[in-house]
Amino acid sequence: MSFGLHEQQGLTSQAFNSFLNRLGPDPVAGAEAYEELRFALLKFFEWHDSWFPEEDADETINRVIRKNAEEEDAIQNMTAYALGVARMVHLEMQRSPDRRRVELESLPPLVSPAEEVLAEDSEDLPECFQHCLQSLPPENQTLLRRYYEHNQHARIVQRQRLAQELGITDGTLRQRTKRLRERLEQCVNRCRKRKETARQKARRQKK
Amino acid sequence: MDSLSSFETLSRQYLLGELTEAELAAMQQDIFSDQEKFYQLCEIEDRLLDDYARGALTAEQQRRFEQRYVSNPARRRRVEFAQAMAREFQRETKESPASSVVFRRWQSVWQGVRASVHTPRLAVSAAIIVVILLLISTAWLWMEREGLHQKVAQLEGQPSPSAAALAVPTSPTPTISATPTPTALPSPSVRDMRVVNLTVLALALRSEKPGTETKLVLPREAEQVRLHIQLPAQPYKQYAVRLQDAQAQEVFSQGKVKARSEKGTRIIVVTIPVQRLQPGTLVLTIEGLADNGEREPVSKQEIQVTRK
User: Tell me: the pLDDT tens digits for A25-59?
Assistant: First the structure.
């Protein structure tokens, strides 16, 4: 969680802290609830075909923080209110889908052809995937491998067997692998972004 | 894709943009007021991505999925990640997608019977019908098996006409042929499997001459293409395989494919879901992975894909 982004949007730290206080009884609980809310909004925008889900999620949170700062008791249910604001942001995005294209056009033109950029980007994936997979403890690598190795009905049987071997319920196994998958996906995304940034930097220097 | 709960069905419709405005609003309310449902939906999305990556969606679902996911950069990254997972974790098992189709068909038939049988009298009648059907099908399968054995015996003595019809090399050097999965022939249930599951064997890719082209004709029922790539004499233990379309967009790639020996020849085998192979020209690139981790070119050639 970072206040920096919200500060850029003209929000005060007082408004931000007041928002966190509404989310949880103490700073830690408030911060956790903030992350959960942001994740839920991120998914909302992803599921509703947003091209910039992170920006839309942050815009939604900014509006909620502002509202909360203006009238502290106006929001009874923070999640429901945030969902309402998210719908508004989504509608605005649908009405003016071009609003961010201007920003893209103002970016410096790419030195390399687009095909080359795309090819490099997709080449990052196998490397990043292997790097991130190898960075997991061996037992977690094995768990993921066994959880996902089969197709169709064999997968169900395999997962039941795996849960029995580990002495845990199917639900616990599902949760454990879900967290591992998320960790792996986040690592891969960060790695791809790093490589992409490094390439852009190298291109600019070359220019 | 296994039989789905009603929430999973609804969630998949939500993710694929198939709900009406009213259903959409209700779903949003539901998932944002119930945290457990929200996380369930996240899991369902993962399963949907996995099903796509493994080629387990129906043609219609696949079309809807591509409309929603592949065109959006943020979502496309998720698809690419799921594809990387499938490539890494999905091992080659004896289980074929086709056998699962057969399994699903029987499952749905059984569910239908179970749902319709509410009274004991109906249950007895249904049981008698099932026994009679089983007897008839056993006799039919036995006859089919005998017929298949005769056909196999005939085919072993002559070149396969289906291979010639399905894949036509335009140059004498590389040969590519399509045959059913070898394990699919002897079993009685294979008749169904052959309809939906096809293995394509690329027996040799010796030439590196530019302009060399191989034709691959895909039957409508095919679900997967298995490329057996015969390698020229190279010192590499592992290879990277990449398929790109005419616009140089990658349609398939697999790194670290281990070479193995088969009848005195070194080969690598990759399995590609058919939906990734759109009609047109594809460029197949093979690179060897050197010990220092660098990739070195081994071969490059065009494959013309058409659908029957």
Answer: 888 888 888 998 999 999 999 898 888 888 899 99
Q: Do B72 and A49 touch (CB under 8 A)?
A: yes
Q: Tens digits of per-residue pLDDT, A52-67?
A: 888 899 999 999 999 8
Nearest-angstrom CA–CA distance, A144 and B82: 13
Q: Is B154 on the interface with A (CB under 8 A)?
A: no
Is the predicted pLDDT of residue B106 greater than 50, yes or no?
Answer: no
Q: Where are the alpha helices (DSSP H) in chain B?
A: 6-15, 21-33, 35-53, 59-65, 73-89, 97-116, 120-156, 161-166, 190-196
Task: List beta partners, residue B302.
Answer: B213, B283
A:27-46 residues touching chain B, CB 8 A cutoff = 36, 40, 43-44, 46
Q: Which residues contact A31 (CB under 8 A, 6 or more apart)?
A: A1, A20, A24
Residues ≥6 apart with Cβ < 8 Å to B170: B213, B214, B215, B304
For tokens 């034709």, name the residue. Answer: B215
Strand B295-307 vs strand B280-289: parallel, antiparallel, or unpaired?
antiparallel
pLDDT band at A5 (very low <50, low <70, confident <90, very high): low
Contacts for B145 with CB less than 8 Å, ≥ 6 apart: B188
Residues of chain B neighbouring A145 (CB-CB closer than 8 A): 88-89
Q: How many CB pairs under 8 A join A and B?
A: 106
* Pair B50, A97: CB distance under 8 Å: no
B38 membership: H or E segment, kind and range? helix B35-53
- Cβ atoms of A23 and A30 within 8 Å: the answer is yes
